[in-house]
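Q: Got a minute? One more chain.
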Amino acid sequence: MSKSTHPLIGQQGCQFASHSKIKKRGIPFVFRLVLCSFALATINSRAADATFGTFVNPICEQADPWITQDHGHYLACFAEGNHAISVQISDRLTGLGVKHIVWTAPATDPASREVWAPELHRLGDRWYVYFAASDGQNKNHKAWVLQSEGNDPLGPYSLHGPLYTGDDPSMTASNCWAIDLTTMELNGRLYAIWSGWPDSHDVQYLYIAPMKDPLAMAGPRVRICADDDYLWERVDERLEGRGLNEAPEVLQHGGRTFVTYSCSGSWQPSYKLGMLELRSGGDPLDPKDWKKFPSPVFQSSAKTFGVGHNSFVKSPDGTEDWLVYHSKWNRNDGWQRTVFTQPFKWSADGLPMLGEPVAAGQVLPLPSGEKIPVVTGAQEFHFKNLQDLIGWSYFGHHQLLSLQDGWLHLGDLPANAANSFRSGEKIVLDGGDWSDFTATLQLRALQNQGEAGLLFRVQQPAVGYNAQRGYFAGYLPGQSRVVLGLTDGVNWRELASASVSGPSGSEVALSVRASGDQIQVSVQGRILLQTNDVTFPSGSFGLRVVDTHAAFSQLQIKPLADKTEVTPKTSFLQNTAYATLISDSR
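A: Always. Here it is, folded:
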């Protein structure tokens, strides 16, 4: 049964694909993505209305979110299951696009385990991914870097490192523990800033060092500041707790240089952002030239907590500043987290005003200039390969979606999943707009529990069991039952249910017909449910599981009355310039 109440706390665009497997000779992948996007549906670039002009958080399940911008595109970089690194490219901040695995850690190596907090940076004419990794023992974490062969952010990449993050002036002895390395460009020079231990003791400070080039330091590290100047920087926010500073991120504005950092325990609700500022004309390698602000600049609210490890981006049209950060899934100690984004302003005296974390499910306007193409008309999806996932967004733990044997699997929990949790995993078609239709779906219930089925007339999806507004027709294999209900973003309400035969593992043909307020649900071609409801008159389609593992294929959508087709306009064409850039590099 669908959850009646649950925190709204997922992940958009988390379709896995090895870049080496999807790149075709002579055709840049991003350009092929554009072509597939045109073929995907009838696209209407109409002005955003109340539905298409808004979104809700969280936008994905992940931790340590790094999003940067290049040539009008957002590039998101994440660790995958602590053993690989992915990159996603999109023209939208709130929908991150298809996921590509650009590097997988070797089976045994000093950089084979605990892959944390990768950051993708364009430095010169190449891309670099800075990340932390170890041999499986945290005490051996070091800073590593991937370098692209050309100027394609999807690689291929070569591994370099570890970078020297110790105190030896000759940079040959006693390399030190390091995580969360980022780069800073200032006055024509390149610097690295990271979180490190002073020796073998687990005490985290912020360090900085000059870089000779993106692959090597030019000198030993300098500790920027103490990690316990204020109580709020300490673990547990108590005097007995150790100071902990990590995840530095650079924010430059109006000729000023700020560095936000995360502090207290990342596993605790008290995780938050502090901030430093470099004195005007100051030397980044001189700790006296850094000023620490006496209060947190971003901290937990009653509904959104454990906030930190952020990045900064602009809206698509460049008129707004946006903060991207992760938040804890619940208040228990641990590392189950989701990603939020929200706009922020600047004060009259030039300081960033990050505000208070928004609540999960709070409706926000899209970033200025962001468009969600509208998809209508007769459609058919088989979910056999990567191209079938273009234009869909995934909301759930990043290891609970996969393509296997020509079927899309949701809820398949790997044995060694990293910080996994269930959240009613779902995949939703971006910008879908159907009112009256018939839709059919093939599904396989692979566990004799929970429920799996079709979301329809769905709007404003996010991570969470009931974190969407729309209807759900589901098959419950453990109860041999089919159910129809709706979710309002927080709660589930059942509208009708009926018994149905069909053992676990069998293939079920699930159909929905909607016309105005009349809704019918059929199984194996037999109408089992009929009801009337007008709560949600239109919306998109999605596939969803609740506390189970199921596989999906052959979703067919047929409008009862065809809508006028409109020639596709600018939304996906924006990718062409980026595709040309990539093509020119080969």
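A: The CA atoms of residues 90 and 97 lie 5 Å apart.
Q: Perfect, thanks.
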